[in-house]
Here is the input.
Amino acid sequence: MERYGSDTEGDEQERPLLHRRHEDKVQRAPVCCSARYGLALLSSFGFFVVYSLRVNLSVAMVDMLNTTHSSSSNHSGSVCPAHASPAQPKHNHTASVYNWDSETQGWILGSFFYGYILTQIPGGYLAGRFGPKWLLGFGILGTVIFTLLTPVAADLGASYLIAVRALEGVGEGVTFPAMYTMWASWAPPMERSRLLTISYIGAQLGTVISLPLSGQICFYLDWTYVFYVFGAVGLVWFVLWVFLVFDSPNTHPRISERERLYITTSLKSELSTSAGYIPWRAIVTSTPLWAIVVAHFSYNWTFYTLLTLLPTYMKNVLGFSIQQNGMLSALPYMGCAVFAVLSGQLADYLRETCLCPTVRVRKSFSIVGMIGPAVFLVAAGYTGCNYTLALSFLTISSSLGGVSASGFNINHLDIAPSYAGILLGITNTFATIPGMVGPVIAGALTRNGTIEEWQTVFYIAAAINLFGAVVYTLFGRGTVQPWAVHTSYTHGD
Here is the structure.
């Protein structure tokens, strides 16, 4: 058994130094033109596609609704004075519009996650069994195909649109577990935070770019083109993924021998040699894993609430038009993307150069990335119609959330790199629940669209975030767990 299984403070303090000495035995491979950073960039493009397909409906939904019908509800227009916007071209009204109430909208926006939750754990298992490349590639391709069918489904009825969105979720559900499985074979321990934050910044960029671009597409064309444009981008990514990505350094035909040796040698002491065996009992009873589960669930409650409902909040409360909506809704995620990358650089610097224990780095970044967003989210609810202050607080809240990218978010690879895909599948299964119920609950709580109703939504999200930060701080760990590095197992382990 490896010494890395210990959770004592002494072993934890030794671990970064042990890794650094171990990696220095093999000459470090350069970053420029390397296969591992090429993978980071292409996987970032993949997550750009994933999140573009996930969030574009949030903006398109504003333009898909029959505003004449909706004005007969308890309130009309926005709570705050509407902002001036350019006159809409007449051809903007050629697409169909629908008479969906707020509850139906909530079910449509949340339906994606009903499919998404089904393939989290299977995605981690299948990626480990058959390889992550094709699983991730075909998962996103399936989502692309159903995205292209979205306008047809909407015309057939809300129930058909809900079904199509759920099928999109089934395809996307394998992406994160498969990518974690791939990084277990590709990311040297001391470059883990850097590589993963580069990889997953694509998710934030997908949000940042797709929100304003979707608004522009809705304004100048119509909402159906939102799904056609991003679907086409997804097809381009799939072609690049097929020809340029490989499951591991040992199967990559164009990687340099120096880089291959650097990666495989640095990971040698962390990966289990018991191929094909999964210690399910140890996994599901692991306290450090459940600490990540709680943190992931809590963080995602706030993240998905904003992701799916921020465009609606911008229109119904702050009074921004469809064209302005996408642009301004993207600001919080732009800040999140910047902070995520910076936190990855800082986290690896603290672990490698300053020799900070991994567990201390993960917990510190998680506290900042969860409590900070909670405070500013609540504050945003008390800004009234001060648009500048409201947007500033929402942007700061989301930006600080990006810091957690180097906290609990990649802790799976610290405690069990051999089973990182399965662990991510487990935590993301629970973390998907907020995406399923959050929009429905928020929609039910904001029937009248008042500021007081939105304050309640923000308070709930902040309280859940705070709870998750406390649990992770108490029970999170940063070392490889004993069950993750066994070279052999007895029956019943």
